[in-house]
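Tokens for FMN-binding glutamate synthase family protein. Go.
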Amino acid sequence: MRQKFFLFGTIAFLMALTVYYFFNFGLTAAICIALLLLVGLANSIQKKHAILRNFPVLGYFRYLFEMIAPEIQQYFIERSTDGKPFSRNQRSLVYQRAKNIDATTPFGTQLVLNQSSYEGIKHSMFPAKVKEDLPRVLVGGSDCTQPYSASLLNISAMSFGSLSENAIMALNKGALKGHFYHNTGEGGLTQFHLQGGDVTWQIGTGYFGCRDDRGGFDGGKFAEKANLPAVKMIEIKLSQGAKPGHGGVLPAQKNTEEIAKIRGVQPHITILSPPSHSAFSDAKGLVAFIAHLRELANGKPIGFKLCIGETSEFETLCQEMINSNCYPDFITVDGAEGGTGAAPLEFADGVGMPFEPALIFVTKTLVRFGIRDKIRVICSGKIISGYAILRAIALGADICNSARGFMFSLGCIQALRCNNNECPTGVATQNKMLMKGLVVTDKSERVYHFHKNTLHAANELLAAAGKKDFADVDISIFMRGDEFTHLANTYFPDNLTNVAK
Ligand SMILES: Cc1cc2nc3c(=O)[nH]c(=O)nc-3n(C[C@H](O)[C@H](O)[C@H](O)COP(=O)(O)O)c2cc1C
């Protein structure tokens, strides 16, 4: 290919020169061809990129198409039901609810229902009245002196650093208007989180915002922030579903001077938080740390977030809580299908328990140890609709969090660029130019409407199931396709036999 490129390139160059010599035009073409030849020459002698060495100019098309592949996929190839991780239909639902416009669907479902993986709600012949009030749940066990009345749906942990300052401000202002909480993520509590909305302050292994000079936990700094009126609850992050067992990752491109200052780290380098906490290293230590934080926070609710891995460790922890008579006020269970700003693929694809079994395991284990009533269970994992909320409650959760749902409400288009600072919608970037696209006053309204309309949809489903309260919801209101495919397989052949007789 190289020979052909140089042969045809030289011929084209000479032809352009000849045309210019005789007819006095074509000089620009000759210059362009010469430049291409020079680029081609440079590429053919470099040793790093095999494609460019063999196809000195055409090779660039590969990089171009690779760069725009996600857009081509989304605009021209993706069908309504098959985008990943969220389908076009799922994303559209959030956009419509966030814009507070008609979110109905025409012509009937696009899903294949008559199959074993189908799931649906067993509606009642006598539906209940749809509740107008949006549901709330009180968080705070017997050691908590400042219990918090949380909304059933809240903003899951996403740090300033991972998200832009405009995104964080819009989320917090939306939370203020809708009266729900906004989890800071492990990147620390910043002025952008303090726009008036309720805050759950998350403490990760980097202890950003309550970090001593050696990177350990600083109780004094913690107490200062934990006692701010906006901070309603504190969450110790053990792990998250997208990268359990791996600490937080802040890519160098997103680690600006401002973020580095807030976190107390060096700017412009990739920041890897350690996988484990230095303040404790076992179940006993974690329980003692919970008690310590509760004391420093003057009795505010303290909980922890985890993605389930080795189940026996969770059982040991439950036993330890009983032994020490000290319980977290809440436990947040994150499914392995959870999102992140940046994670190694091995961790995203191959570590941790998915949402459904994890939630069932945690709630059943708490029941088995007789401590379910002492602890609220919060969950996260692709909860973006009223249906997903009801399903989570049926599996045992008390409260739901959504991260990517609220990102969609901010205008995220699933461009899959959270990790390289090039998010085109200004949601997950620190690029000031891109951030300008996200207007805080407009997007905070969308955050507010997404929350309100989604919970209203959950209220409607609750009523359709004939239930008056979310506390009455359990798994019995759901049916799975395997039930009726089994029914069909069992009864239709019999019926046909009867007919034949
Ligand atoms: C951009 C982004 C940043 C995140 N940052 C954090 C974080 O700092 N701490 C944490 O515990 N989880 C973090 N998460 C995980 C979410 O809080 C949530 O647990 C997970 O995405 C599942 O919820 P979802 O399916 O609604 O997105 C992040 C997720 C995203 C998408």
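The mean pLDDT is 94.
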